[in-house]
């Protein structure tokens, strides 16, 4: 096993990780490397939407805006700490203009104003976009900046353990996925930019290449925060893509079939009184894409639950059909809601069929699927309610450092969002968090970690235990662990995604704990050399991380419910005494009248040495108690003497 010493290591090659590496170099940290399982994997490079949004302070027009106003909108999402809301507002322009200077073509008008539009959960025109692949443009430009600086990139290196004593960082253990060799890196700082734990769900709109690695951070002692809070929404399965915006606004037909694709049924018409009512709700799904517990009883989120019922209760498959209208009849546009009719008339999209309307409204949306092997003019598109974004994650402070000294979390891996968030704020959060972490590390770059002999022995012992486990796992038949991962992910989607079943959650937790106990018995086993076995070993490491993650997230959901929490955000908790009933599926009640009864409380979850999880609630840090900036001279002095980094 090779051993190296590097001052700061960034793990992850998405927009947040690349920005962290670039900023660290810019701020003077040169003993630096970026570790990634594959430079071309990850969510930032391989995902998008109808109009992927970047969210920032308003930079056009005469509508009043300010850092504190933007921070208030972020804070109002519920369960958000004030320092994160303020930092993400204050640095939004810095992050945005860096991307502009790197060449990301955000649009501006003839006078240089960077125009914007309203996004969900925000009254101002703060959203901007370069089209469906905004995050890809960002990632490509940031990678170019990193390569121009000749920052070391350790590609094809999978992190298989974070080495810590529960208080401070020792280093990381990696495996080269090209040849199975192991590399131990001793480091002072680790910037964790591994994205959300995409691998824990089977029905997911995350790219297939995105796995996440938060389980290893939990194992190292990092606390979780708001793990219960996710976004779920309708997405196609092949390819994985959000069917938001124009995909819904052109009023496609919803069809379910048996597993063979036969016995087509328009299941929405079993619930809605007529085709007009169904189409009005389908149209609203374009605006209201994320599932929202508040929009079930009389809103468009009922469609998500009806899709879920077809798949998990009836065992069928669900499709969007753009070849024909709802009910197979010609659309009476005058009979639709005023909002729906006016929108389609103004867009000139009142053609006879959904595909004709989509060609008119957004031809690029049709082209996208054709490029990926689906011709919407001649075939149906399979969809499901999929996990899309984790609003929670690893708990961080105002400099994006976790409770383990030296470990920072940025991007979707970090928990800075709450129950709701404005669309596009995640891209801004990744740029802000990675900048904050880089600033803090650079301000302390002269500090280097020293390791005692006892600590070195502990580090090597932890590494040896993990390698032993991995090589034991590599003796399984090829594809075994990948199949186990797939099975566990589908189990999670059924038990604990948009709809959360207490009994199913408990069963999964018992299963995971029993499985982990078996692994504990294996950790001291003698190393077994398996020729060419590292591919199965790598698959097991992903499965190991997945199960750790699932245990943490399931425990958080269980404890949230036991503490009195009810349905909110993008999740419904089954409640036998609930006020809202969906036949054959669920009864539930909102968490207070507006679904925000516990918005002042933040849940933190951690993994105990015994292998069990614990969780507790705390009050969020108020935005209103953050003092206004002092006199310029006072703030300048604090900046020069670096006392700002100690607060």
Please outline what is shown here.
The chain has 647 residues and is an alpha+beta fold. The chain is 36% helix and 17% strand. Helix 5 crosses helix 14 (425-443), helix 16 (480-495) runs antiparallel to helix 17 and helix 16 (480-495) packs parallel to helix 18.
Overview of this protein structure:
The chain has 647 residues and is an alpha+beta fold. It is built from 19 helices and 22 strands. The strands form 6 sheets. Strands 1, 2, 5, 6, 7, 8 and 16 form a 7-stranded mixed sheet that branches. Strands 11-10-14-13-12 form a 5-stranded antiparallel sheet. It has a 4-stranded antiparallel sheet with strand order 15-9-21-22. It is globular and about 75 Å long. The protein starts with a strand and ends in a 7-residue tail after the last helix. The mean pLDDT is 94.
Task: State the separation between the terminal residues, measured CA to CA.
Answer: 40 Å
Q: Strand pairing plus helix content: what structural class?
A: alpha+beta
Q: Helix content range of the residues, please?
A: 25-40%
Largest sheet geometry: 7 strands, mixed
Mean pLDDT figure: 94
Strand content: 15-25%
Top keywords for this entry?
alpha+beta; 647 residues; 17% strand; single chain
Task: Present the secondary structure layout.
Elements: E1 2-11, H1 15-26, E2 32-35, H2 43-46, E3 54-55, H3 67-75, H4 82-90, H5 92-102, E4 127-128, H6 134-148, E5 152-154, E6 157-164, E7 169-176, E8 182-192, H7 214-219, E9 224-225, E10 230-237, E11 240-242, H8 246-249, E12 253-257, H9 275-287, H10 302-313, E13 317-321, H11 338-346, H12 354-361, H13 363-371, E14 381-390, E15 393-394, E16 407-409, H14 425-443, H15 453-473, H16 480-495, E17 499-500, H17 502-522, H18 534-562, E18 572-573, E19 580-582, E20 586-588, E21 601-607, E22 613-619, H19 632-640
Parallel strand pairs: 1-2, 1-8, 2-5, 8-16, 17-18
Antiparallel strand pairs: 3-4, 6-7, 7-8, 9-15, 9-21, 10-11, 10-14, 12-13, 13-14, 19-20, 21-22
Helix pairs in contact: 1-6, 1-14, 3-4, 5-14, 12-13, 15-18, 16-17, 16-18, 17-18
